[in-house]
Structures are given as structure tokens and as C-alpha cells.
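We were asked to recover a plausible sequence for a given structure. The inputs and outputs are reproduced exactly as logged, with field labels preserved.

PROBLEM: sequence recovery
POSITIONS: 388
GIVEN STRUCTURE:
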């Protein structure tokens, strides 16, 4: 996958001036698409301004409001650069910032220890997440081009909005795809995790996790009065890991935006029963997930392509000591059930962030630092890159 110089310049201009933008590629294609949409007087960047405008959208994990930030498909790369030449402006920076410290192992242990007794008593599942913090000297465009090139089977994106800050990701999990003409939607239950080179039979713990997610999605669709079809269980590979997958389709009268909010967050990223799991996540996790575990996607010609925001990174320009670069939060989670083993779950989150951490470090591993080196160092998060 390659990016032309015009698009590269447009992305860099948006990062410098904090202009809402998206660079994305749909699954099954290496075609990169860029759009930008400068904010208006409100200082906000809404995705769904009407029922017909093509747009990119990105939502928070715990969003319970109708508002969804995003980027209207207003300006392509050439038009954006012409606007920047004609006007000297810099737009408001995002209010939320990446965390400097990563999730401590002791904090994860404390959360795990408090969740397990409830699960042993009542059953169900809670997804416990953590984040790694990495400082990298690599430029965002170079990072995402390396990351996007690893696979074409995912939805890949880099974006900025004033509500969310800068995010990029490569997610394999469909939340909802719609076809306005056929009145059909397609989704999937993606749960259970192991390394790609593990060919043993799936254990009961992973099969149970998968059944929880599939049942929740199917029941949610049926409650909306839709005719639901559930495919057989299969496997989906994503680089160094693989998941269990059940593809699900439905047909009927659908309000896709409302249905996305009904489905999100699914038990694959929250747990089940969902209300109990969300309460435990709020109480015991030591970080905000922000957009991790929410949904991200595009609306094109009235059709939605929406994905659960996984294998993603939240980043901001920063100075570490005397070195300018980017502070990054890498998120991952794992489903905790009554018989989960803490060390296995912690190692699973390492496996899910392993590839992205290597991309941030570069080919020779010298472009990034993380962990105690950041915690003990002097780091300042900036509103915009110092030199670009």
C-alpha cells in the first residue's frame, strides 16, 4: 500500500492545523481515501449532519448520546491544500489527551481479583482492558502506512476530530454493514482469542465467550423485528492472532444509526449481562477507554460500513526530554469469565498489541520507548507538532 505525496501533504496539513480529516481503506482493497471538513463556529465536527451526506464517523465506547463526531466528505486532498494556501488558520485542539502512564500490572491484578468473585457467583463475562503507553519518533503517516500494509482484510483509518483527538486503527470486526436497497444488514460475533499458530481445539472458555456475543447480537436484531439468519461458527485470523466468528445477517425496516447504538458496545468488548459488565468496567478500570471499543466507519451512498474500534491507537504530539515525537496509547482487552486465569488474560492483551507496538518502534526497534522509561521521564503533550 502506498500514499501519494498530495495525500501525504494533506494529512500533515490537517495534523498541523488540527483540521478534522480521515484517511481510510475499506476491507479487501488497498485504495486510500482522504477527506477533510473544517469545523464551523460551534468548534464541533458532527458526522451525521443529514441523511444523505457521505461521512466518516467515530464514537466513544461509553457514548449514550445521539451525537456522533466525524468528518463530512467535503474536501479532498487537493481542495484541502488549496484552502490552506488561501487561509492562515489553526483550529481548536482536542480536549482529551493520551495518558502518560500505562496500566500497571498491579492495577490489572486488583481489577481482575474484584471481578472474578461476582462472575463465579452469577456467571456472565466482563471484558477487562488495559493500555500500553509508547513514545515514538516516527511520523504518523509512516506509522499508519506500515500498519495498513500488513493486511487488507480490515477497516483501516487515521483520523482527527476535536472531540476525539487523533486515532488510527486496523479493525477486523464488523459492527454493522447495511444495504439500503435490500433492507439488509450484516454483522458478526467475534470473540475468543488465541495465537494464529495454535491449532488445538477451542476450549470451553472461548466457546462460551463466543456464544454470549452471538446470542446477544441475534436477540438485539430480533427485538427490532428483523428476520435473522445465523451462519455456522468459523475462524478469523488477524496477523498474529485468531478469533472465533459467527456471521449474522438480518432483513427488515432498519434505522441503522439507532441499531448501531443498540449493539454497541457488544459483549465482545464490554461483557454480559451488559449493564453489570459496564458498571464493573467503570468501577475497576483505571483508565478511560475513550474511542477504544466504540465504533468507527463510513457512510457512502446511504450505506453504512461500521466496525468495532479494535487494534487501535490514540496519539498526540509530545516532547520526551528534548526529543519531539508522539505519545501513543495502545488498547486491548480480554473477556473474563469465572474460570479465567489472570496471567493468560494479561498475555492475551500483550499479543493483541504486539504488532502495533513493533510498528511504532520501526524496523530497527530504535524509534520508540515505553513503560517505566516514560513514567520516570519528563514528557509534555503538545497542542500541535513542534516542527512538521
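RECOVERED SEQUENCE:
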Amino acid at each position: 500500500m502506498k500514499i501519494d505525496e498530495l495525500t501525504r501533504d494533506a494529512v500533515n496539513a490537517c495534523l498541523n492545523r488540527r483540521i478534522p480529516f480521515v484517511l481510510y481503506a475499506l476491507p479487501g482493497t488497498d485504495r486510500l481515501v482522504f477527506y477533510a471538513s473544517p469545523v464551523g463556529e460551534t468548534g464541533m465536527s458532527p458526522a451525521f449532519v443529514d441523511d444523505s451526506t457521505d461521512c466518516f464517523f467515530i464514537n466513544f465506547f461509553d457514548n449514550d448520546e445521539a451525537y456522533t463526531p466525524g468528518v463530512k466528505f467535503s474536501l479532498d486532498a487537493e481542495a484541502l491544500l488549496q484552502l490552506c494556501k488561501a487561509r492562515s488558520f489553526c483550529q481548536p485542539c482536542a480536549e482529551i489527551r493520551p495518558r502518560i502512564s500505562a496500566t500497571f500490572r498491579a492495577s490489572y491484578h486488583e481489577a481482575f481479583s474484584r471481578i472474578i468473585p461476582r462472575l463465579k457467583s452469577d456467571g456472565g463475562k466482563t471484558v477487562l482492558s488495559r493500555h500500553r503507553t509508547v513514545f515514538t519518533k516516527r511520523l504518523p503517516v509512516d506509522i499508519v502506512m506500515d500498519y495498513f500494509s500488513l493486511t487488507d482484510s480490515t477497516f483501516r483509518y487515521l483520523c482527527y476530530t476535536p472531540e476525539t483527538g487523533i486515532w488510527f486503527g486496523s479493525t477486523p470486526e464488523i459492527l454493522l454493514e447495511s444495504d439500503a436497497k435490500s433492507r439488509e444488514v450484516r454483522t458478526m460475533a467475534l470473540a475468543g482469542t488465541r495465537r494464529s499458530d495454535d491449532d488445538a481445539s477451542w476450549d470451553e472458555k472461548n466457546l462460551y465467550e463466543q456464544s454470549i456475543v452471538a446470542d446477544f447480537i441475534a436477540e438485539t436484531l430480533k427485538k427490532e423485528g428483523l428476520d435473522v439468519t445465523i451462519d455456522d461458527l468459523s475462524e478469523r485470523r488477524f496477523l498474529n492472532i485468531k478469533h472465533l466468528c459467527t456471521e449474522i445477517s438480518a432483513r427488515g425496516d432498519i434505522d441503522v444509526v439507532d441499531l448501531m447504538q443498540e449493539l454497541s458496545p457488544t459483549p465482545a468488548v464490554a461483557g454480559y449481562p451488559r449493564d453489570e459488565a459496564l458498571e464493573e468496567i467503570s468501577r475497576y478500570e483505571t483508565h478511560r477507554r475513550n474511542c477504544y471499543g466504540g465504533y468507527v466507519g463510513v457512510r457512502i451512498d446511504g450505506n453504512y460500513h461500521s466496525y468495532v474500534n479494535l487494534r487501535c491507537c490514540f496519539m498526540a504530539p509530545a516532547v520526551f526530554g528534548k526529543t519531539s515525537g508522539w505519545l501513543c496509547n495502545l488498547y486491548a482487552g480480554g473477556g473474563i469469565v469465572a474460570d479465567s486465569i489472570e496471567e493468560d488474560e494479561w498475555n492475551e492483551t500483550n499479543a493483541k498489541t504486539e504488532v502495533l507496538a513493533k510498528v511504532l518502534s520501526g524496523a530497527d526497534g530504535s524509534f520508540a520507548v515505553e513503560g517505566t522509561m516514560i513514567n520516570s521521564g519528563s514528557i509534555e503533550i503538545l497542542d500541535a507538532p513542534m516542527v512538521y
